[in-house]
Design brief:
single chain; two-stranded antiparallel sheet; 23% strand; alpha+beta; two-stranded antiparallel ribbon
Length: 79
């Protein structure tokens, strides 16, 4: 029996919460395209072949927001 090779796409999506003026806020980044200028999403990116979820999350957050050295905690994994 011949083995089949499967290419899986795994992504990380980071929910960054903060309290400002006693209100809970969630960070979103622009995902605007020419077709829709008001499209927002959670920061995130595709997992590279050689990285773990935490490394991917930190890279994606820095890439999309410029933020680094934030406390990150993996709460759930969905598959």
């Amino acid at each position: 029996m011949q083995q089949q090779e499967h290419n899986l796409a795994v992504t990380t999506d980071i929910a960054v919460f903060t309290l400002r003026d006693e209100c809970l806020h969630l960070m979103l980044v622009s995902a605007a395209t020419n077709a829709n200028e008001n499209y927002w999403k959670l920061p995130g990116d595709l997992l590279a072949n050689d990285e773990d979820l935490e490394t991917c999350a930190k890279r994606a957050l820095q890439k999309s927001t410029g933020l680094c050295d934030l406390y990150l905690e993996q709460l759930y994994t969905f598959g």
